[in-house]
Amino acid sequence: MSAFSGKSVVITGAAGGIGLCLAQWFGARGAHIVGLDRSVTAGAAMSALEDAEIAARFIRLDIGDAEAVEAAFAEIEAVDVLVNNAGYSNHHVLRLTTPASWAEEINGNLNGAFFCAHAAAARMREQGGGAIVNIASVNGQSALGDPAYSAAKAGMIAMTRTLAQELGQYGIRANCVMPGTVRTPLWRERAQKDPDVLRTLERWYPLGRIVEPEEVASVVGFLASDAASAVSGAVIPVDCGLSAGNIVMTRELTLEEL
Ligand SMILES: NC(=O)c1ccc[n+]([C@@H]2O[C@H](COP(=O)([O-])OP(=O)(O)OC[C@H]3O[C@@H](n4cnc5c(N)ncnc54)[C@H](O)[C@@H]3O)[C@@H](O)[C@H]2O)c1
Fold this sequence. Notes:
Protein name: SDR family oxidoreductase
InterPro entries: KR_dom (IPR057326), NAD(P)-bd_dom_sf (IPR036291), Sc_DH/Rdtase_CS (IPR020904), SDR (IPR050259), SDR_fam (IPR002347)
Low-confidence stretches: none
Radius of gyration: 18 Å
Bound molecules: nicotinamide-adenine-dinucleotide
Number of domains: 1
Family: Belongs to the short-chain dehydrogenases/reductases (SDR) family.
Domain Ketoreductase: 7-190
């Protein structure tokens, strides 16, 4: 029997690069997928899952709309796993960030993840347990640009720990992953336009490369699975070693081949 056979896995942002990969990963292991996404590309993602004979459906909504999230979770049959994956950044620097764009990004990234966790936790309590996995970012831990997005991701890490503490008594685990740069279609497009973009980035990663979407999915899958039954409140970098330290500075300080 597959690891997630008969389980209902709700994935926000399931029409995007990492989200679709997550849906394929869980779907290939027997899960029924419910994708929550505001994008019109949800149709194409649904077709890709159908082609792979994965049981899935999509609900089109903005997770930053609390009422829409409540209504969506009320019509989902069961919620065994929630992956809070939807996320985006509007402005890469503080100079271009306005009070309105800050509030909008915090709402879409952090408040939305809370709305989904809140609704999912109620369902999981009724069912006697479940697992929540939040997709934060290395931006939640270090300043790497995208100020509102980074603040939202830092909030997501803090929220994960609170969820783990308060929901543990109901058999609900909550964990978080922090990806570094992931080779999603967006990055592939950027690299096609400018091949140096990835070469420049890869210097910062001890493994000498960026992360593949499947490598995020396998860690999320582990955290959602019974193999991680004693893991709750963990924050795991999936970043090819980026957050181990500043390798570019280390090279300069040691003045030696590493
Ligand atoms: N790609 C990377 O390098 C990288 C690195 C670190 C963290 N992450 C995180 O991984 C997650 C997925 O990123 P991705 O690269 O696949 O991005 P993506 O843009 O390819 O996909 C994101 C998906 O989320 C949906 N979405 C965004 N905001 C939404 C909202 N408010 N309501 C409903 N749907 C919404 C979008 O429509 C899209 O389909 C994000 O949380 C992102 O912050 C990505």
